[in-house]
Amino acid sequence: MKNNTVNNGENKMSSKDLTELERKIFIKLLLGWDNLAIEEQLKMKRNNIKQIVHSIFKKFDVHSRPELLAKYIPHIVIQREEKKLHG
Questions:
Q1: Does 31 map to a domain?
Q2: What's the structural domain count of the chain?
Q3: d(CA 42, CA 68)
């Protein structure tokens, strides 16, 4: 995954700042997967999935999936558009 950075006030949060497992779950969150689907795919316990999702929320300073998407997706779109202009 590209190093997409989100500005959280003073901090800049990047998907690169996530652990490998957090990054896998983060991608699935961006794709709209629910905890049950993630649990089945990664063969993990539901409580572990919940803890990791909350860790991701904390790192991005959000409280819900829609808030995470609203904060992160525009940066992906902007990055793609900039790439079109320069490459």
A1: yes
A2: 1
A3: 21
